[in-house]
Amino acid sequence: MNVPCFQIAEDCYKYFSGKDYMMAEQPDNTTEEIEGLGEKEDAAWKDYPIDTLLIRNESRTVFDVLRRIKQNNYIMDPEFQRDFIWPEDKQSRLIESVLMRIPLPVFYLAEDDQGRMVVVDGLQRLSTFKRFADGELCLSLPEQDKLNKKRFADLAPKLQNRVEDCNLIFYIIDAKVPDRARLDIFEHVNGGIPLTRQQMRNSLYMGAATRFLKDEVCTDIFLKATGNSLNKDTMRDREFVNRFCAFQLLSLDEYKGNMDDFLAQVLKKMNSLRPEDISRLSEEFRRSLISNHKVFGIHAFRKHSKGQEKRGVLNASLWDVMSTGLSRYPEELVNAHAEDLKSKFYTLIEDDEFVTSITRGPSDARKVRHRFHVISAIFKEVLGAHTT
Q: Which of 55, 57, 89, 385 is the most buried (most CB within 10 A)?
């Protein structure tokens, strides 16, 4: 049966555009209960001045792109759950399409501050080209006798050239695009496994900061203090560490009501810190986790009342104030005043204004400042002025 060329092209677009290439199960996030997070702020494009959305397009050959990948100018493994998941028959069909000169859908990249390219949409296709060029992929095309079971080196020079000379169209998100806009664009164009905002941040701001987040969520004290309640697949655990870093290293005056901007801002700052500053931050963080767990046990960072046995859900807003607050006091001092701290906390948790500040619209700048002011006053009353 003869199939019209336009039908072949349409089928290939649907197949390789990334909209349906998710072959692995999505992480089940239905069991993850988190309180005190702001509502997701979807992009409203009118909020961005039109001249700030700098997205350019470039055309590059497969050969040129593979050269740049080898030079580490393209980030192909951005440390989130986006592993290479295409089966070999689908990889083979991509190469077959290139050999048939069928145009491929566009690719999306995001430029970082060092000029490297983060692959936003098209990771599967670029990885397929790399695997084939490196001799790792053996074509599985039973209906193509001349191509079946062939590696790149087995192809005739004419066909090798056809692969290497294939033109790929890239849309590149400029590094100057505002942080929130970059995340929103990233979310809109990514056609594969849906990414969380933290996964996007982890890709866009790779460096000392993201390595810090990765290391800290693996410690025994982090798992113990959080009750192992944070989803690793969605990087919710790293998001909580990111929040600690933001409120620890940046001033409250720098928080303008948008958590995305705030969390991105601190990651960029951390990437420029000296190793000794990162080590000190780690010490402060772990000291806080130890203190919070010793004082509140399984109820650390959760709303609870005196004598409560059942563990509540983690509250991100409580995490912000309690994790940063106790990081500034020696463990011995906190332990010595544990009962006083709990007593003050139980009184506070009955205060409607405070509870509202950690549960309803908690990302509002006024509510953020309120809860930090209240908690800081309690710590100063019980523990004195912080000494670390």
A: 55
